[in-house]
Amino acid sequence: MGERINSYRELRVYQSAMEAAMKIFQLTKTFPHEEKYSMIDQIRRSSRSVCANIAEAWRKRRYKAAFIAKLSDAESEACETQVWIEFAGRCSYFDKKTEDELDIAYNQIIAQIVRMIEEAGKWLIKK
User: Fold this and answer.
1) Distance from C-alpha of 51 to C-alpha of 108, rounded to nearest angstrom
2) What CATH number corresponds to the domain at position 64?
3) pLDDT tens-place values along the chain, 127 residues long
């Protein structure tokens, strides 16, 4: 791990997830009004949930199973966000370049989460 991390906000995966969620927030402002309570709500909630679950996992580092469970939730939410990104692309709400950039960002976020799960012992609070 190198440097000591004191807060979930210092995690690169959290920073990447927050940046991606904020990009989604900005982009969805241009979606059609009829998507307000469907696609806009869903993609915003799932993208934000990635961040929230990473933060929750950070606080549950005393318990390996709880830590992994919250990271697994973050991974699932990131994958759900990718599905909404694909829908947005297919509905032409995102151009292909934006869709691809967001998909790549979430692939990287998922990879970081999976690595944290695989190396959970490195992240746990030692008793």
Assistant:
1) 14
2) 1.20.1440.60
3) 457 899 999 999 999 999 999 999 999 999 999 998 899 999 999 999 999 999 999 999 999 999 999 999 999 999 999 999 999 999 999 999 999 999 999 999 999 999 999 999 999 998 7
**H helical segments located in the chain:** 12-28, 41-59, 64-90, 96-118, 120-123
Domain extent, residue 74, equals: 10-25+36-123
C-alpha 79 chain-centroid distance: 8
Note the pTM of the prediction, 2 decimals: 0.94
User: Does residue 113 contact residue 64 with C-beta atoms inside 8 Å?
Assistant: no
Given a contact cutoff of 8 angstroms between Cβ atoms, the answer to whether 57 and 70 are in contact is yes
The structural domain count of the chain equals 1
Give the Cβ contact number of residue 30 at 10 Å: 8
CA distances to 21, 45, 71 from 68, in Å: 22, 21, 5
